[in-house]
Amino acid sequence: MxxxxxxxxxxxKRLAVVASREHHDVVVVDSxxxxxxxxxxxxxxxxxxxxxxxxxxxxxxxxQNADLLIALTPHDELNxxxxxxxxxxxxxxxxxxxxxxxxxxxxxxxxxxYGIDRLLNPDKEAAKELLWHIELSGALRTEAFFDRKAxxxxxxxxxxxxxxxxxxxxxxxxxxTDMLVAAVHRKREMIIPDxxxxxxxxxxxxxxVSVKSVRGIFSRLHMxxxxxxxxxxxxxxxxxxxxxxxxxxxxxxxxxxxKDRERCIELMKLFPQAQVICGDAVDTRTLKEEGxxxxxxxxxxxxxxxxxxxxxxxxxxxxxxxxLAKINEMGYEQLLKETDINVCVSPSSVIVEKLLxxxxxxxxxxxxxxxxxxxxxxxxxxxxxxxxxxxCGKIGIPFCSPEFKLKxxxxxxxxxxxxxxxxxxxxxxxxxxDTVVVVTDVDNVLNELDDIFIQS
Length: 456
Hints:
Elements: E1 2-6, H1 10-21, E2 25-30, H2 33-42, E3 46-49, H3 55-61, E4 68-71, H4 76-89, E5 93-97, H5 101-105, H6 107-114, E6 118-120, H7 122-136, E7 141-146, E8 150-156, H8 168-175, E9 179-186, E10 189-191, E11 204-210, H9 214-220, E12 230-234, H10 238-247, E13 253-258, H11 261-270, E14 275-278, H12 284-289, E15 297-300, H13 305-317, E16 322-326, H14 330-337, E17 343-345, H15 347-363, E18 370-376, E19 381-387, E20 410-417, E21 420-422, E22 435-441
Parallel strand pairs: 1-2, 1-4, 2-3, 4-5, 5-6, 12-13, 12-15, 13-14, 15-16, 16-17
Antiparallel strand pairs: 7-8, 8-11, 9-10, 9-11, 18-19, 19-22, 20-21, 20-22
């Protein structure tokens, strides 16, 4: 496919690299010559220097025959203009990033009036992910959510853990609940496990489990899943606004620490039930004075990654059970993942995963579309939720049948059927309307569900 990416910030660069590695014809557009030259010299992408809102520049990028244009500049208005112009030139599908709440409120109108196929709000999506983590994950690090019914949690196996040297079947028997080890991250190796794989000390397990069965995981590991009531939000920009908007009416006791005095006055009007404190979170005395030790959850979402990193580490040292951070830079994101901090949510990663779903659905000839795509195990594996259409070639065939053969390094981790979560076994089968969660390594680029099977 021919893909045009307008804007080379964190998200634009990450998406361009991933899309080029999946062998798409990628053209990047940015007004900064050095940004365009940097990525075109390193990767197999073409570049155009100029404004993404310019008809001439978009024609130079090939918008007349492009399959997809994605506008990711920091300016909502420019992104909308870029998509409008591309559509008029003949681009098949367009996506615009927006951040301002006023544009988010007019989403349906903007899409219909200007012919844009989708609007992407990274701060809103990141806030949604943070909310799910607050509601569900407890002391385990949660990697993915599927229809709020199933989730993937990451568990590091300590040397003293009873899981050491267990087979996959023994792990399932140990937890005695609906779960499956979907991937094993061992040093630099990522393993999609079969029955012969045994757990080793320091393995990171990616476990898929129904939401209602999470308590069983906590129980067997002698962990307490503490209900979150008191939430401290550090920083309340756009992402913070979206999170506070969800937290306040849901019965949480919310305290917001924001250093900008004018923003504090605005927040007090927006969230009258929340306690808004004007102060600088970099000063640990302020965090102590505001009772950080009494908090069930601390969410650091300032505009500065280093501040979010420092606040998260301090909150963890003060015994806060649920520590969450919004991180933009990949380096800081990776650094936080190496700690015991529960959750690191990157708006950039969330949008890249969403756009990968869009790209693969457009590239697919099947109606079994991708509903959700997550990169897990330090970006070495993918968990993909496919919606099963009647075009799937393996409907009704038991997994144990010789006709049902999966390619290497692929695992069907769960089937969501209505309100039921099925952790599959040999007698399971796929039905039309199911959501099938597939785990694979990133080298297997899956556009449609039938891509997972060995065709006889």
